[in-house]
Amino acid sequence: MKRKGCSILFVNSNDQLLLFLRDDIPGLPYANMWDIPGGHVDEGEMPQACIEREMKEEIGVDLNDFTLFHVYEFNDRTEYVFLKFWDLDIDSLVLTEGQALRWFSEQDILKTELAYGFNRVAENFFEQMRMGTLPLSGLSKSHCKTPFFR
After folding, report:
1. Within 13 Å of residue 44, how many CA atoms lie on the same side as its CB?
2. Residue extents of the structural domains in the chain
3. What is the C-alpha R_g of the chain?
4. What does the DSSP assignment read for 94-122?
5. What CATH topology corresponds to 3-149?
6. Higher pLDDT pick, 21 / 138
7. In 3D, which of 14, 12, 4, 17 has the Cα closest to residue 114?
8. What is the pLDDT of residues 17-72, one digit of tens each?
9. In angstroms, how far is the first alpha carbon of the chain from the final one?
10. In Å, how far are 27, 108, 110, 111, 148 from 51, measured between CA atoms?
């Protein structure tokens, strides 16, 4: 049985995705690579509870008003990817895992190999955004200034 992961696409009002730079520790998978925030779903844990726990642990934020973006089947795992529009002030966050946080444009991501095969997820997000087919149910419009809410 494949393991389960959860991740979240934070999108700011400039239509950029938040990525974090993984730690540069010998033996760590995808060390020193940019990654989408998330983690492993614990045994018996629901993916929504996992992403809430992981974001509290890793960047100290309480999540609300987020929705499931897509479930991806990778060779090694099933990945539950959530979506939240939020102009996070990354300079005020306390990062407890990884080296840095940074907002990436679509062009930046196209030039960057992401950890865990997440380029597929990012490319899918930007394509759906252009087509106007993002899953927006359950998302708060008050936290978002992106064009599809205008």
Report:
1. 0
2. 3-149
3. 15
4. --SSSSEEEEE-HHHHHTSPBGGGTHHHH
5. Nucleoside Triphosphate Pyrophosphohydrolase (3.90.79)
6. 21
7. 17
8. 999 999 999 999 999 999 999 999 999 999 999 999 999 999 999 999 999 999 99
9. 43
10. 24, 25, 25, 27, 25
Note the pLDDT tens digit of each residue in 98-120.
999 999 999 999 999 999 999 99
Q: How far apart are CA 33 and CA 106, in angstroms?
A: 17
Can you give the length of the chain in residues?
Answer: 150
Task: Give the per-residue pLDDT at 1.
Answer: 81
User: Which residue, chain included where needed, has tokens 């907002």?
Assistant: 103
Residue whose entry in the numeric block shows the structure tokens 């509290």: 56
Tokens, residue 40: 């492993």
